[in-house]
Amino acid sequence: METIKSxxxxxIKHSDEFVQSLIDTLLMLVISGFFVLIIGLFLGVxxxxxKKDNILENKYINRPLDxxxxxxxxxxxxxxxxxxxxxxxxxMGTMIGVKGAIFPLVIGAIPFFVRQVxxxxxxxxxxxxxxxxxxxxxxxxxxxxxxxxxxxxQLIRAITITTISLLGLTSLGGAVGAGGIGAFVIRYGxxxxxxxxxxxxxxxxxLFVTIIQTVGNYLAKKKTH
Length: 225
Known about the structure:
Layout: H1 2-7, H2 9-13, H3 15-49, H4 59-74, H5 77-83, H6 85-92, H7 97-122, H8 126-134, H9 139-150, H10 152-172, H11 180-190, H12 195-223
Helix pairs in contact: 3-4, 3-7, 3-10, 3-11, 4-7, 6-7, 7-10, 8-9, 10-12, 11-12
């Protein structure tokens, strides 16, 4: 214990805040990730099936949605955070802390995930889709029994990549008071130059990413056929 204190004096001193920052980061990741998964998957499927020559072709849905996704995807997250402050306060009731970070995290990550889903669904064999149509399957049945089933492995990879990206966004959100590991490192590691805190948090983020990627690769391999 004395050895740990000698190498990590500032981390030990602020251990309570460190633990709370971990909890805050996990809360932001899980809650925002849930909404990104549901909304992003829906929009990814929608933008795919409404493309030209697809099962629910509709240019009046596809084109505006495509443009909207491109607009939000092109905005750097730190700028998007600031731009969304009024909307965040109106919807969440606050602009700071975990609660204030959820809305911008969801808005910032959805466009990225939608493109990942779109790419995963694009890899589904067109012949399988045509065969399903010839068998009389409805568009909804084709979506669930063909698109989603056939692309499960790719979708898991998309979720893995998006989760890692979302973890990075939670840290970046600390720059504007979102809480979590990012805010903790900025407050002590950067502003006060407590480098032991910075190094431990870097190692922790690397560990998180490694675990997420390993689990994602395993599940994707199991579901790929």
